[in-house]
Amino acid sequence: MAPRWAAAALPSAALLLLLLAVASAGLSGYFGTKSRYEEVNPHLLRDPLSLGPAAAGSRLPAACAPLQLRALLRHGTRYPTAGQIRRLGELHARLLRRPAAAAAGCSAAADLAAWQMWYEESLDGRLAPQGRRDMEHLARRLAARFPALFAARRRLVLASSSKHRCLQSGAAFRRGLGPSLSLGSDEVEVEVNDSLMRFFDHCAKFVALVEENDTAMCQVNAFKEGPEMRKVLEKVASALCLPVEELNADLVQVAFLACSYELAIKNVTSPWCSLFSEEDAKVLEYLNDLKQYWKRGYGYDINSRSSCILFQDIFQHLDKAVEESKSSKPISSPLIVQVGHAETLQPLLALMGFFKDDEPLKANNYVRQMHRKFRSGRIVPYAANLVFVLYHCDQVKTSKEEYQVQMLLNEKLMFFHHSNETISTYADLKDYYKDILENCHFKEECALPKVNITAVDEL
Questions:
Q1: d(Cα 344, Cα 377) in Å, to the nearest integer?
Q2: Which DSSP string corresponds to 280-325?
Q3: DSSP character at residue 127
Q4: What distance in Å separates the CA atoms of residue 437 and residue 172, rounded to the nearest whole number?
Q5: Mean pLDDT on 243-256
Q6: Catalytic residue status for 75
Q7: Are 126 and 164 in contact (CB under 8 A)?
Q8: Which of 163, 344, 401, 430 is within CB 3.0–4.6 Å of 340 for a Cys-Cys bond?
Q9: Calpha distance 110→88 (Å, rounded)
Q10: Residue 413's beta-bridge partner residues?
């Protein structure tokens, strides 16, 4: 028979696990770009191959057949970067250095000191096993959603960023489709195309005036020093029994990231989660969204304008498919799948005008932005996907209606701005984006200004 103390310990251990699970459930909707894909599609927690509830008004005319699918994917769930791992190790080491007497009266610090620091810098942003599953399951769901396009012996063009996590995501996507499509078997057959998947690296104006310019992130830095973050900082310092001077916004953010990574990678609730309430999580999500907004979204025009090279490439391939169809030729590229980053998708969606709030996200309007459209975790979680589908339709009233398009973000139909419908004629869509298609020239947009002006003036 178990000793009485052991029997008493069981319920308390179970209670701790329950409390941690509740903590994680309350926080998981606020992890920003480190969010699980299941946060935007909760039905996948029950069945990872489910296509989910049918969207109202999503039916196409019966006489429409898909001609081409262009999918832009963010890589699957990844490990933290080396920099994040170093900062987490630094915070963990501080807790380990605490005197035993001080730690004894501080349960959160003791729990975290006992936590095993299993991340190694060599993991540096690599694809996690869950990330491979993300991609394999996504491939199978897209094949089930568009069986005619993914039929046997259809040609798949697969491209990727040069980053290892993207190449591995591309290979996992291909594995998910099985042997039926005409594909190679080696990872090297995934084409590397950084000019499209990492266009931001090749845009000198973006690199100089945003990426490498600290003043461009002034709103982010102001929020780190603001009252909302100060309150979170003080609360975390108190929970860890540390002087508040020993913490800063970056270390607190790393602790929050540790909570998100453990859930995404291992599907466990980390003891790091116990440091945060749902209100804290909302503040930290806003910090993440501020960075995305000013570095990848609407903050500066160059963020989105740098993506016009990708936007135009999408329409060039759609144009080609339309021309081939009109000439009764087989579609040369019925499936084009490209794997990039949150930083690939977010600027493109901003270029197209999606998720734009009436008021810019700033350090001083956190409360007013509580119901903002721009929430990066809802837009570009791990395995995020933006899909363009071109259809040929028979039995139409006008020739313009013969070619139609749908867009899906994270497997949900999007409403087009010009019609507020989930389907558009291809001609109307091109007309709506005519200015970007004709007048956004990557080389000119990304050229550095010849005169020496400040980033704020230029951007």
A1: 15
A2: HHHHHHHHHHHHHHHHHSTTSHHHHHTTHHHHHHHHHHHHHHHHHH
A3: B
A4: 33
A5: 93
A6: yes
A7: yes
A8: 344
A9: 16
A10: 408
Distances (CA, A) of 387 to 161, 202, 244, 399, 409: 17, 24, 46, 24, 6
d(CA 69, CA 150): 10
- Find the catalytic residue in 75, 137, 317, 392: 75
H-helix or E-strand spanning residue 409: strand 403-409
CA nearest to 157, candidates 402, 321, 294: 321
Contact 273, 16 (CB under 8 A): no
Q: What confidence category does residue 456 fall into, taking pLDDT thresholds of 50, 70 and 90?
A: low
Q: Residue 173: enclosing H or E segment and its boundaries?
A: helix 164-177
Q: State whether residue 389 is helix, strand or coil.
A: strand
| Dihedral angle over CA of 20, 26, 28, 29, nearest 10 | 180
pLDDT of 414-424, one tens digit each?
999 999 999 99
Distance CA 300, CA 297 (A): 7
The type of residue at 319 is: D
453 vs 201, 215, 221, 457, CA distance in Å? 22, 13, 22, 7
Contact 322, 230 (CB under 8 A): no
CA 47, 48, 52 angle in degrees (round to 5)?
70
Q: Contact, 74 vs 383, CB < 8 A?
A: yes
User: Six-digit token pair at 455?
Assistant: 């980033």
pLDDT in tens, 360-402: 999 999 999 999 999 999 999 999 999 999 999 998 889 899 9
Task: HSE, CB side, 13 Å, CA atoms: give it for residue 203.
Answer: 28
